[in-house]
Design brief:
This protein is α+β, with helices and mostly antiparallel strands. β14 and β15 form a beta hairpin. α14 packs across α17. The protein starts with 9 loop residues before the first helix and ends in a 10-residue tail after the last helix. The structure holds isobutyryl-coenzyme A. The site of isobutyryl-coenzyme A has 25 residues, from β14, α15, β17 and β18.
């Protein structure tokens, strides 16, 4: 987020305000110095609008705002001084009573098209800001688009099931009042408008409560409120929640104390005490009934995404390595800790241990947490351990990520896994959760599989598949046959970057951590 730096002097501010008599107050300067560029621009617009209104009062005229183009040109004239903001100012020409083309904004991840799954409005319907307009399905997530305006829908550009293009109009809205105009002015810059639209794309079913200031902070950081877990009353999203979300996404801001998140009462009751039913993977999608003839239909949504990503994956020369892990100690330890975790409102399975152990090993083998560019010329070693977890959801196989595992305790990993598992079960995973993975684990054992040959998810370079934990006979040190809890793990790695010896050393370290889970304590921060 661009911040307003001390490089902007009061002189410049006055000049930016058209070099007139306006004197910037100390408080505004202070706000600007600590605030964001958007705050600064808002002040400019407000200053200008006030001046326009003063002129009207003097003239005794009707409540007609000064012509926007005049303000536009003033602000655009000043845009050279905004170079540190990196963007030119822009205001919309929308007027009260005008028809606004509401465009489908960029939803990130290079997504260029979505399928319109369902319209919630029809032509002639009245809508208010934040009313749901339609639900669209991208390659990666189901997203509800909500209105930015109060008004009447005059045109729907697509039928249900049609493919809508990013950047193209979705609906026309006949706006009702000049209040929309005022908000448009406050949005001001072109890229920010795209982000503003972003906040009008909410994951279905999640109602967000937040103050305008928090909404703006989210918008400025390109964060969808629907993906943030609020820690305020009734799940209200607070400023801290946005900052924490940002920290987890980027790793740029270190989280406060490791236990802070756990001590904070979890907001949404459904997340605090996940019901076993909610966490149970949904039943497999019903098979299409045999219709007596072949049926051909276009690939859509998740199937389309899988076809694309797996075709790309097959360009990677896969190296495979399988290992057995004796989890007898871990089984006992988890049984002991499960109730404690439950006391914190967290369901503790084996996955958090597998995930945390992988992160500890990645710290020793950064090449397994890397990516290779398309021309095979550069390796990028990723700072964050964003560990993807293959998840069986009602919508198909998804791989949401637990972000920044290197910064999380096992309990925090479990809490995060609970959250994404619940969202997955409800078909509500968003792009933030589904993107940015740097390494993956796939627990085929939780649905009864024993061995697997996992496929690497580009741009990642390694993945592990975990089989079911089986009670099997093993010999102890004295040669006695004992009961042991054995799990198979199958690793795949990109052989262009990773050799078998590296994969084997990583696997041995991971196995040793899990066979002797107490040893992980020495490395936890
Ligand atoms: N063995 C034995 N028991 C297990 C295992 C294994 N491997 N994994 C989980 N469990 C237990 C787990 O500890 C829970 O036990 P209780 O706490 O005593 O109830 C129980 O099974 C249910 O666990 P749950 O699945 O709810 O949670 P978990 O954290 O273990 O897993 C998940 C989360 C998201 C991985 C899981 O819910 C899921 O979606 N699993 C399916 C993943 C999938 O589809 N994998 C296939 C991907 S394709 O791998 C692939 C290479 C190709 C073949």
């Amino acid at each position: 987020m661009a911040t307003f730096s001390s490089r902007v002097t009061s002189l410049q501010v006055d000049w930016l305000l058209a070099g007139r008599t306006c004197v910037t107050s100390a408080s505004k300067m202070a706000a600007m110095a600590r605030g964001s560029s958007a705050v600064f621009r808002r002040l400019l617009v407000q200053q200008y609008r006030r001046r326009c209104l003063r002129i009207q009062e003097v003239c005794g005229g009707h409540a007609v705002l000064c012509p926007l183009p005049t303000m536009d040109s003033k602000l655009q004239m000043c845009s050279g001084s905004f170079q540190m903001l990196g963007r030119a100012l822009h205001t919309s020409a929308v007027r009260g009573g005008a028809v606004v083309q509401f465009k489908l904004s960029d939803i990130g991840e290079g997504i260029m098209e979505v399928t319109v799954k369902e319209w919630y409005v029809k032509e002639g319907d009245k809508v208010s800001q934040f009313d749901s307009i339609c639900e669209v399905q991208s390659d990666k997530a189901s997203v509800t688009i909500t209105s930015r305006y109060d008004g009447v829908i005059t045109k729907l550009y697509y039928d249900a099931d049609e493919v809508a293009l990013v950047g193209k109009p979705l609906v026309d809205i006949h706006t009702e009042s000049t209040s929309d105009v005022i908000q448009e002015e406050d949005v001001v810059e072109t890229p920010a408008m795209a982000r503003e639209e972003h906040t009008h794309q909410e994951i279905k079913g999640l109602k967000t409560q937040a103050t305008p200031a928090v909404r703006r902070l989210a918008m400025e950081n390109n964060i969808k409120l629907s993906e943030v877990v609020g820690s305020g009353k009734d799940g209200r999203i607070l400023k801290e929640d946005i900052l924490n979300f940002l920290a987890k996404q980027t790793g740029a801001i270190l989280p406060p104390s490791p236990f802070q998140e756990i001590q904070t009462p979890p907001p949404a009751p459904s997340l605090a005490t996940p019901s076993p039913a909610a966490l149970k993977p949904p039943p497999a999608a019903p098979r299409r009934a045999f219709a007596g003839k072949d049926v051909t239909e276009p690939l859509k949504g998740f199937h389309k995404a899988m076809a694309k990503s797996m075709t790309a994956a097959l360009n990677i020369p896969h190296l495979g390595l399988c290992e057995q892990v004796d989890l007898s100690h871990l089984v006992a330890l988890r049984a002991q800790l499960k109730a404690d975790a439950q006391g914190h409102g967290v369901k503790l399975s084996y996955m958090p241990f597998f995930i945390k152990a992988a992160s500890l090993c990645l710290a020793h083998f950064p090449i397994l947490n890397a990516s290779l560019d398309e021309s095979c010329q550069n390796i990028t070693y990723k700072a964050s351990h964003n560990i993807g977890v293959a998840m069986d959801t009602g919508l198909g196989l998804l791989v949401p990520t637990v972000k920044n595992v290197q910064l999380l305790s096992i309990l925090e990993v479990a809490q995060e896994l609970n959250r994404i598992q619940e969202l997955g079960a409800a078909g509500q995973l968003g792009t933030a959760d589904l993107s940015g993975g740097t390494f993956s684990l796939s627990n085929i054992g939780s649905i009864g599989g024993t061995y697997a040959k996992p496929v690497i998810l580009p741009p990642e370079v390694a993945i592990g598949a975990l089989g079911k934990i089986q009670v099997l006979p093993r010999f102890d040190a004295l040669g006695h046959v004992t009961r042991a809890h054995i799990m198979n793990v199958s690793w795949s790695a990109d052989h262009r970057l990773i050799d078998g010896a590296t994969m084997c050393r990583f696997s041995n370290m991971w196995r040793d951590f899990l066979q002797n889970p107490a040893s992980m304590l020495l490395h936890l921060k």
